Amino acid sequence: MRRNIVVKLICLVLFSFSMQVKAQEILYGPTISYQYQKGSAVKTGGYFAFAFLGENILKTDVTANFTWTQKKFAVIPELALSFYPESWVVAPFVRTEFTPYTFTPKVGVTMATLLDLDFGYGFSIADKQDYRPLKGFTVSLRFNIPLNYKLNM
């Protein structure tokens, strides 16, 4: 009984806090992530996010994918666009990634745009020489490190 009251109180406080958080106009900084799609890849790069039509956030990333698959090392450039329809502490988002070899639409969940977990499917648009096609289901865990983050309340 006491435990239920404590849990409900914590949920109420977190909910109240999340209702007061406002979206920042602009965020930018480095991003690092891990992705699995026919092999593991570590991605590093930068991002720029801005408020879009009220509380929505639009973010673009430019990254380099470092991968070791089929006993070969490769660096693959990537451009991504993410849309966060709500600026809640925990919110859904959609994302599209483009490389010279794949087009990958994704859906996921974010924690204040700082930590993203997403799932998608990569469609092959070209083959990388001496590699199997880079396509199929994918999952990513991404850390976005804002250099200008501040909490507006």
UniProtKB/TrEMBL annotation:
It comes from Sphingobacterium kitahiroshimense. Keywords: Signal. This is Outer membrane protein beta-barrel domain-containing protein. Residues 1-23 form the signal peptide.
